[in-house]
Amino acid sequence: MNFLIFIIIPLLIGLYAQAKVSGAYSKNVQIRSRRGITGAEAARRVMSSAGIDDVDIVEIEGHLTDHYNPTNKTLALSRENYRGTSLAALGVAAHEAGHAIQDKEAYAPLKTRMALVPITQLASSILPIVIFGGFVLFGGASGILCMEICIVIYLIMTVFQLVTLPVEYNASARAKARLQTLGILDEDEMYGVNETLDAAALTYVAAFVSSLGWLLYMLASRRD
Q1: Which of the residues 10, 50, 121, 219 could staple to 213 if both were Cys, CB 3.0 to 4.6 A apart?
Q2: Residue 148 falls in the annotated catalytic set
Q3: Residue scoring higher pLDDT (210 or 133)
Q4: Which residues on adjacent β-strands are paired with residue 69?
Q5: Per the residue annotation, which of 41, 59, 96, 168 is the catalytic one?
Q6: pTM for the complete prediction?
Q7: What's the average model confidence in pLDDT over 17-43?
Q8: How crowded is residue 115: how many other Cβ atoms within 10 Å of its Cβ?
Q9: What is the distance between the terminal CA atoms of the chain, rounded to a whole angstrom?
């Protein structure tokens, strides 16, 4: 029962979230914005409105690989969003620009998230080794130690995903507001942006639920 509640249900939520974002993006990437502004142009305008002129906007390969790197002040957009003029492209580009604005304003959740990145990456990298060790050393002191390490790892990952939620939702809110106030999109075009970004946000909720589910499952297993 614990496996169903803590693992399977979060897994289904994750699959639903991925299907939702894929469907929303595929739909709205086909709807061209009225003014024909590209994602790169939209990102530049959004950042300029906040007085940001030291961030490079670069084109990268991949599908929905868009991200903002506060370390080297780079906003990376996948080709379809960098060059695209669709509602989906503008929404994603403006969302990443929202992260740049967070960085400039020293938005606390973003700073916390960045501080957690190194330890979260380390935890994620050693998790498979610890899980494998737990299977091999099932039972006894060594097996118990592996479970305790897993609990710490999932705790780190859960905290990271929890902190990520306000970062992503805030960036989307900034994007939606500026796309309209800057005249990049008209009010009747915002439905496509809202649908795309709201679906994307659901994937972060699913990631948090998944991490929390594994943490609770490990805690319940230790108790049993």
Answers
A1: 10
A2: no
A3: 210
A4: 74
A5: 96
A6: 0.92
A7: 97
A8: 11
A9: 13
